[in-house]
Amino acid sequence: MTEILETHGVKIPLDKGVITPKIERSIRKNRYELDEVSGTPKFIKSDDRVIELGAGIGFISSFLSVNLGVQNILCVEADPALCDFISDVHKLNGLSTAQVRNCIALNDAGQAGPVPFFVREQFWSSSMDSDSPYQKSIDVPGIHLSRLIQDFQANTLIVDIEGGERDLFSPVDLTGIDKVYLEVHTRKIKRIGIKQCFDALSDNGFAYDQQVSSGGSVLFRRIPRWQLKQHAG
Hints:
By secondary structure, the chain is α/β, with parallel strands linked by helices. The protein is built from eight helices and twelve strands. It has a seven-stranded mixed β-sheet with strand order 5-4-3-9-10-12-11, with helices on both faces. Strands 6-8-7 form a three-stranded mixed β-sheet. The longest helix has 18 residues, at 186-203.
């Protein structure tokens, strides 16, 4: 019988094929995704429509449902092996309304179609970057982020895509999005990549929210158009 781990109210099956010893320790010590556990309750509302890019094991989406009452969640995960696990985690935590899609979100300049994705032992290190050692390469459907936003009518993005944030927001149509919660992977994208990412969000009308942001997890909120026009004037 599979042991069920629990952290911050979320139940997670201890599948050794997915939950490595390092991840297991983090979960048992209630340290897993602590920035998100601390940060999301400060800005997420129960009626938000959330797209989570890099859904991992389905912990964040389940946390939002169990603790904050969010029901409308689209989980985007590149690793197909994790998608079934995410669905199992959702079922275990009573989240029946969430959707799970096996794809990679692209900016509007990206070519929709198969995208190489590099799978590593620790799933949180898997990425579109082949620079570091990986277990295998797979082709994953690439879909424009703007299309995902439009189809799901999302107003919130949660993004943890291991360096993919550098190019995600330029160019992209973020119409309808009010909040972008982003994990910045400085080790991968360096300071120039952070500038590129932050500049793109600024150009899209978003500003850094200091009250919620902590460490590498940062929140951007959309500035109302009337304020932008007032500032420009």
